[in-house]
Amino acid sequence: MFYAGVFLAISLSLPRIADGPGTSGFVVTIGLLAIWRYGWWGVHVVRSMIFLNLTFPKLRAEAETSAGIERAPEVYVLITSYRMAGDVSFRVYDGLVSALRCYGAPATIIASITDQSDVDLLQHVLDAHGNPKDIEIRFMFQRGDGKRSAMGEAARAIARDLPSPDALVVFMDGDIYLPPDTLERSLPFFAINPALGALTTDNRGFVKGDGWTREWYDLRYAQRHLVMSSMSLSRRLLVLTGRFSVFRASIVTDRDFIRHVEDDHIDHWRFGRFRFLSGDDKSTWFWLLRNRREMLYVPDVVAWGFEELPDRRRFLASSIGLMRRWYGNMLRNSSRAIALGPGRMGFFTWWSLVDQRVSMWTSLTGPVVAVMLTLAHSRPFFLGYLSWIMMTRLFASVLLGLQRGRFSPLWPVLLYYNQIVGALVKTWVTFRVNQQKWTRQNIVDGEPADPWKRTCQRAIGHGMHVTQFAGYVYALALMTGVLAMPHGTAFALMTGRVSPPSSDDYWLRPAIARLGDSGELQLPAGAFTLLSGEPLSLGRTILRGAGHDRTSLYIAGGLDCLRPDPCVEGAFIEFRGSQSQSPSPPAPSIPENPS
Fold first, then answer.
1. Where are the domains of the chain?
2. I want to staple 150 with a disulfide (CB 3.0 to 4.6 A). Which of 112, 321, 323, 490 is the partner?
3. Closest C-alpha among 265, 133, 141, 249 to residue 187
4. pLDDT (tens digit, 9 = 90+) per residue, 24-40?
5. How confident is the model at residue 536 (pLDDT cuts 50, 70, 90)?
6. What angle do CA 470, 471, 474 make, to 5 degrees?
7. Counting beta carbons within 10 angstroms of the beta carbon of residue 154, is it exposed (0 to 12), middle (13 to 18) or buried (19 or more)?
8. For residues 452-461, b (16+ Cβ closer than 10 Å) or e, as one string?
9. What DSSP designation does 590 have?
10. SS3 state at 79
């Protein structure tokens, strides 16, 4: 009710800004941006509906048919845990063992753990299930230098077993709970599609925190569900989440795949070569993308995560910290993925990656334009923009709610929060892409160890960021008419091609000429001089000063140089304010019949 009341109050004031300076720039800029952004978002909505209602039901029917006939000969599970709470670990492994027993194939769990107490807990889980003979657990202790090394060691352990080419490998985190039917409803898709390299499922969470935190996570899951459904129509995805994804064993045991996950890096023109700290899900995704392997999103299977902000008392700081890690992984990988070209991955997937990088700037265009026009014209443009935001975000939230099966009145506000704060975080990370931090393990990497080099890199990043953002704001000011392009003479002065003149001819004469046959030119306080002596051809023109004894105009040759244009009917010259003293005779009086 509060949301509707604010929207109604703002909307009733909109007729006040229906015309006036800046309105056309506001409407054109916001309108074109809306057509582009919401048009692209609408494409995702339509594609997701096609996938969820037409394409996937057929795949599900085929998978259900093959489920009772053909199963994977063996299943490996690579699960990494880092100092998880005992009750969470027990529930995670209890759900995993239940899912493996429900699927019914021989299974090996490779548990990458950090403490001996984890061994006792996992043994307790097996005891609770009667120590099933077809499920084996192997323990591998992590080195504490991140998740990638643990994944590499586990993948080599799987390779040493020489698994069947049809075997499957599950990658999952140690804080993910799998319902008992997860594997039974996911793995059959590999049997019906030999080209399928990997799949992932829907995500939801058991979230600790207040209402804003819970809805923030659930909104992200809802947005993910829509985009992943749309992308899966092309048999490609934008990520293979580490929460829960399944790969063919032939991929996981590939030496190049293992090296890529364990030691992924990029060569940056400014930062040189640096290794990736987190983002293993982006590394596995890029390997499959580069090798033209198909991917699939399974929307009717859910992996549940135990979610909690790093600091539950500080929503803003914690959410921004998570965004920096998520968007940093995205930006570090998208450039090389875009370089693969649309021919290798398809145009839609390629353009989706390009859009990820463009959207960080387009998302900021609306608020920047609204603030700029409000300050420039003293008009309530910001209220108009706020009304537009409230309407569109409510509409987008309703569409997400229809797909998700639930809706929260906090979603419109959180959608806009994700847009603006997320865009600011992306632009920040773009110029500092080497800075990385693993939230849970508190590991920082990517920057030079030498303090001087680190300071120089940061200073250059700050300078590039400020310069690009200033250019972006300036371009928007030109588009909306808040600023005008400098005259050619001004460019010549700035570049040093001409010397600054001793008179005001170089700018005042063009300003008078731009008035055309009629108009009014407001001169500020000061003394102005025209020395060229060339006559000015004027129509119905008014030169207005700032007030008596505040504006003076000296004209070489006197007022005789100001000649009414004989070709303009009714042409005459009119001064408003005091006239300057000049050696020429005083100005002629205006005739009763100006013609």
1. 2-436, 499-576
2. 112
3. 249
4. 777 777 888 888 888 99
5. low
6. 85
7. buried
8. eeeeebeeeb
9. P
10. strand
Output the pLDDT for position 399. Answer: 92
Tokens of 186: 């996911």
Token output for 336: 């090389």
Closest CA to 79 of 154, 143, 136: 154
Task: Determine the pLDDT at residue 590.
Answer: 39
Local structure of residue 560 (DSSP, 8 states): G
Q: Dihedral, CA atoms, 82, 87, 88, 94, nearest 10 degrees?
A: 110
521 backbone dihedrals φ, ψ, rounded to 5°: -115, 120
266 vs 257: CA distance, rounded Å: 16
CATH assignment of 2-436? 3.90.550.10
CB 510 within 8 A of CB 489: yes
Q: What is the mean pLDDT of residues 287-291?
A: 95
- List strands edge to edge, sheet with 518-522: 518-522, 540-544, 572-576
How confident is the model over 134-160, as pLDDT tens digits? Answer: 999 998 888 766 788 888 999 999 999
Asked if 371 and 420 touch (Cβ cutoff 8 Å), the reply is no
Closest CA to 388 of 374, 367, 402: 367
SS3 530: strand
Q: How far is CA 50 from CA 46, 188, 353, in A?
A: 6, 22, 21
Here the tokens at position 331 are 């930006």
DSSP single-letter state for residue 165: T
What the block records as the tokens of 136 is 């084996």
Strands 75-80 and 168-173: parallel
How far from the centroid of its chain's Cα atoms is residue 590's Cα? 63
Instruction: Find, among 149, 129, 131, 132, the residue nearest to 140 by Cα.
Output: 149
Q: How far apart are CA 456 and CA 478, in angstroms?
A: 33
Please give the full DSSP string across 102-113, using - where no structure is assigned.
HH-S-EEEEEEE
pLDDT mean across residues, the chain: 84
Cβ-based neighbour number of residue 425 at 10 Å? 22
The one-letter code for the residue type at 363 is: S
Distance CA 163, CA 73 (A): 9
Half-sphere exposure of 138 (CA within 13 A, CB side): 14
Burial of 69 (0-12, 13-18, 19+ CB in 10 A): exposed
For the entire predicted model, the pTM comes to: 0.80
Task: Specify the amino acid at residue 28.
Answer: V
Backbone angles phi, psi at 461, to 5 degrees: -60, -45
Query: Which one, of 200, 180, 220, 188, lies nearest residue 298 by Cα?
Result: 200
Alpha helix positions (H), 104-176: 116-128, 147-160
